[in-house]
Amino acid sequence: MARCIEKCNFEKENAGHITIKNGDARKLDFIPNSSIDLICTHPPYANIIKYSEDIENDISRCAIPEYLKEMESVARECFRILKNEKFCVILMGDTRQKGHVIPLGFSVMKIFESTGLKLKEIIIKEQFNCSTTGYWKTNSIKYNFLLLAHEYLFVLKK
Ligand SMILES: C[S@@+](CC[C@H](N)C(=O)[O-])C[C@H]1O[C@@H](n2cnc3c(N)ncnc32)[C@H](O)[C@@H]1O
């Protein structure tokens, strides 16, 4: 039933005009200031998964310190293009290095807050049955740590 409603809404004649642009989230020059109603972003989680081998602008090739620096530019651009009173939503997860949790999610949340965006909600998304779950499960037993089984959906308002 829910799917049917979704489909009907999507096919409405006044559903709007969709434009897709391929760009670098750190430099969105083609988007004017304060012009966007809603930002939904799902950045790489540093270099946990590398999305390319040789794309220069791909921040999934950056190790954590450099990645966080680059995310400052992404956050600044998000703040710049978002209209006042509108929302920026970020899906983000944590990672683990040498058996210790690195709270990447909260680091990115803080970077976005530092632009002036105000945190409205933290929503927890359960995560299971991913392609890498088997790898982490084996290692969690071998090296005695808990599985990271959630991601965050940070909702921030300008
Ligand atoms: C966690 S994935 C998100 C995937 C997305 N949810 C989807 O379904 O396509 C992170 C994405 O960010 C992209 N990415 C990496 N560096 C970027 C940059 N500088 N600007 C924009 N996107 C970038 C990667 O190529 C990858 O597709």
Which characteristics define this entry?
single chain, about 160 residues, alpha+beta, Rossmann fold, about 30% helix, about 25% strand, globular, disordered N terminus, binds S-adenosylmethionine
What is the name of the CATH superfamily? Answer: Vaccinia Virus protein VP39
Q: Can you tell me the number of structural domains?
A: 1
Number of helices: 4
Largest sheet: 4 strands, mixed
CATH architecture: 3-Layer(aba) Sandwich
Any idea what the radius of gyration is? Answer: 18 Å
State the CATH class. Answer: Alpha Beta
What would you call the shape?
globular
How helical, in percent, are the residues?
25-40%
Number of strands: 6
In a nutshell, what does this entry contain?
The chain is an alpha+beta fold and 158 residues long.
Describe this protein's structure.
With 158 residues, the chain is of the alpha+beta class. It has a single domain, classed as Rossmann fold (3-Layer(aba) Sandwich), CATH 3.40.50. It is built from four helices and six strands; from the N terminus they run αβαβββαβαβ. The strands form two sheets. It has a four-stranded mixed β-sheet. It has a two-stranded antiparallel sheet with strand order 3-4. Helix 2 packs parallel to helix 3. The longest helix has 18 residues, at 64-81. The protein starts with a helix and ends with a strand. It binds S-adenosylmethionine.
Would you spell out the secondary-structure blueprint of this structure?
Layout: H1 2-10, E1 36-41, H2 64-81, E2 82-92, E3 95-97, E4 100-102, H3 104-114, E5 118-126, H4 133-143, E6 150-157
Parallel strand pairs: 1-2
Antiparallel strand pairs: 2-6, 3-4, 5-6
